[in-house]
Structures are given as C-alpha cells and as structure tokens.
User: Which sequence fits this backbone?
C-alpha cells in the first residue's frame, strides 16, 4: 500500500468502529446517524479530487490509464458531492431520507462516469479478446438474463408487491431505484466481460488495484440494490447495513484509484 491507501484504510477502520457503536446501541435516528453518513461521504469526495489530479502522472486524458483513473475519480467525486447534498438535507433541514432530491444530481452522473472509467480500464488490461473466451460469453449470457430478473424480483415483486409504481411513490423514484443498481452492474460487467480477467498488460504491478476497483463496482451494485429496496419498504435509516455496504464499496473503489497515484519509472504505458 502507498501512503494514500494507508490513510484511506485507517479512516475505514474508524468508520467501522463508529458504525459498530451505532449498531450495538441500536441508534437509528438523529444527529449521530447523520454524522456517519457525512463522514463516509468524505472518502469519495476527497479521493475523487486526489485521483483526478494524480491521473496526470499517467498522461491524464492522453492515455487509457489516465482516462480510466480520471473518470473513475470523477465518478467518486460526483457521488461524494451528491452525498454532501444528502447531508445538508439531513443536518440542516432535518430530513432523514431525501430521496429523490437534488442530491441525486450528484449520485446519478457518478454511474455514467464509473462506466466510462470502466471502459478505459478494460482497455488498459489488454483484453481485446475478452468476449471471445468461454468465460466472457458465459458471463455476458448469464448477466443479460439473471440481473434484470433478480432486479425485477427484488425491486418490483418483493418491494412493491408486483406493482411497478406503487400508490404514493413517484415515477422518478422508481426509475432511480432501478437505474442505480443496474448502472453499477453495467460498469462492472463492461470491465469484467471485455477484460476477460486478463491483467497481464500491467505486468501484475497494479493487479490488486484493478481487482479493488472491480470489487468496488460489485459491492456498489449490491449496496444500491439494498438502498432501493429499503427506501421502498420503509426500513431505511442512515447508518444501516446498506450504508455499511456503500462505505465498503466506495472504499474499494477509492483504494483502487489511489493505487494508481504512483507510477513506476520502468513501466511504459500505451498512450493510444
């Protein structure tokens, strides 16, 4: 781990202790829950800024690595900015679950930037032939079928009793409920399918960072699914299990991005 990753990991340990105290004491409402939501949002906000700046060591937008890190970082920053808006609703306006709200102006674009970063990341891993191998084809086939089915079952059949837009719920919330987890999964699928899990292009130097990014996208998919479900059935609260999943997902993405903050002098990266 480099110094940036060590600081981020230390902060995660602090957040886990904080969350554990909330969980043990059964605290589900109030300022301490709002503070937890604010604190874990600092990870994507700060790392996003650091990552965008540090992408310059790879040539910035002039290389695939630089583009991958820049857009993944921009996605993190956008999510963090949206969560700052969420905390404003929490702490200043005393609204526990402002969803949908102006905070989604930060959350929603983050999915697009993750996807864009994932596309460049898949190119970095040298996986032009990912879809040609058996794993790539199997993953693509099963994903196209299973993910929509699972999402429909959880978010419509279970959470909404089979009604797409339940009475009292806005169409915008329904759209966001489905778009957030599916957007996360698309970003993950693009990376894994196209890469075919081939990381040899970087000589293994950044294998752990790439795996952290892929794992982060996977956890974010699960976390957003949980969030959509709990806000629909009315069990969401700041600092719940879904928020812990978001914390872990954002940490993994941040850990991966921060791993690229230092570039070995001996490594040559294709700029095209």
Assistant:
């Amino acid at each position: 781990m480099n110094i940036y990753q060590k600081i981020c990991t230390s902060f995660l340990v602090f957040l886990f202790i904080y969350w554990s105290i909330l969980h043990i004491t059964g605290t589900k409402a109030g300022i301490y829950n709002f503070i937890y939501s604010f604190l874990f949002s600092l990870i994507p906000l700060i790392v996003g800024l650091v990552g965008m700046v540090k992408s310059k060591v790879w040539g910035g937008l002039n290389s695939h690595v630089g583009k991958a890190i820049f857009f993944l970082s921009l996605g993190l920053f956008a999510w963090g900015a949206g969560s700052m808006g969420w905390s404003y609703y929490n702490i200043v306006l005393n609204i526990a679950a402002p969803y949908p709200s102006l905070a989604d102006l930060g959350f929603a674009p983050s999915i697009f930037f993750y996807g864009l970063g994932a596309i460049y990341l898949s190119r970095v891993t040298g996986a032009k032939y990912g879809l040609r191998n058996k794993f790539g084809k199997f993953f693509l086939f099963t994903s196209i079928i299973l993910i929509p089915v699972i999402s429909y079952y959880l978010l419509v059949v279970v959470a909404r009793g089979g009604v797409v837009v339940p009475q009292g719920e806005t169409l915008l919330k329904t759209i966001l409920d489905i778009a957030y987890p599916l957007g996360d999964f698309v970003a993950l699928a693009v990376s894994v399918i196209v890469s075919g899990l081939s990381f040899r292009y970087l000589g293994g130097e950044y294998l752990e960072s790439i795996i952290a990014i892929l794992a982060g996208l996977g956890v974010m998919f699960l976390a957003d699914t949980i969030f959509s479900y709990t806000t629909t059935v009315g069990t969401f609260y700041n600092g719940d299990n879904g928020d812990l999943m978001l914390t872990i997902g954002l940490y993994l993405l941040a850990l991966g991005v921060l791993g690229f903050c230092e570039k070995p002098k001996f490594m040559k990266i294709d700029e095209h």
